[in-house]
Each structure stands twice: as C-alpha cells, then as structure tokens.
C-alpha cells in the first residue's frame, strides 16, 4: 500500500532531472517509491529496465526526460511486459500514451487506479 500512496501522490513535474543526473535519480526514485521491490530485483535489473525504456522511448518517439522517467516508474511497478500484457490493455494503450503526451492528472489517476487493483490489502 505504501508504494500505491507514493505513486498516487507522485508529480513528475516536481522532480528536477537532466540527462546528466538521470541514472542516479532513477535508482533513488524507484527505491523511494517501492524499496522492497528495488532491493529484491537489485540495481543491475534497474539498469536493464532503464535500457529497455530507452528502446521504448526511441520506438515511440518520446523526447522529454520526465516522460521517460514516468514510463520507467510504470514499468517498475507493473513489469516490463505491460506493453504486451492483455490485462493491462486499457492502461498501456490509452492512459499511458495519453499521460506521456499530455501529462495530465486524469490519466495519472487512471494509471494509479490500475495499479491499485494489483494491491493486496493485508490489514
């Protein structure tokens, strides 16, 4: 639930990122959002995720660094194969693309809603 709350409150425009400090920020940001997952998969997997996101960004002509970081966060939370997973069809085709283009809160809320469906309430 902690990662859901952090993701829900996340504002991509609130972080300062350049291509020079991108590598460090990605690791710190993902560790902040979901420390257990970050520790479980390790920093090498995050490096591979970053490289995979680079390919996705080039293929889909995403040019803004903040949009790339948002994509990496979504891939980190949902898994890298979200693009091909039929369960995430609504997320990946409509909301993610729209958010990456428009960066509006309505699409972010829809993505958060999809992520909340994956959460298990253990309390």
Describe the fold and architecture.
With 123 residues, the chain is mainly alpha-helical. The protein has one domain (2-117). The protein contains 6 helices and no strands. Helix 2 (22-33) crosses helix 3 (35-59). The protein is globular. 20% of the residues are buried. The model has no long low-confidence stretch (mean pLDDT 73). The chain crosses the membrane at residues 69-87. Keywords: Membrane, Transmembrane, Transmembrane helix.
Report, as a whole number of angstroms, the end-to-end distance: 10 Å
Order of helices and strands: HHHHHH
- Compute the CA-based radius of gyration: 14 Å
Note poorly predicted spans: none
Global geometry:
globular
Number of strands: 0
Helix proportion: 55-70%
Structural class: mainly alpha
> What oligomeric arrangement do these chains adopt?
single chain
In what range is the share of β-strand residues?
under 5%
Biggest sheet details: none
The average pLDDT value, as a whole number, equals: 73
Number of self-contained structural domains: 1
Number of helices: 6
Keywords: Membrane, Transmembrane, Transmembrane helix
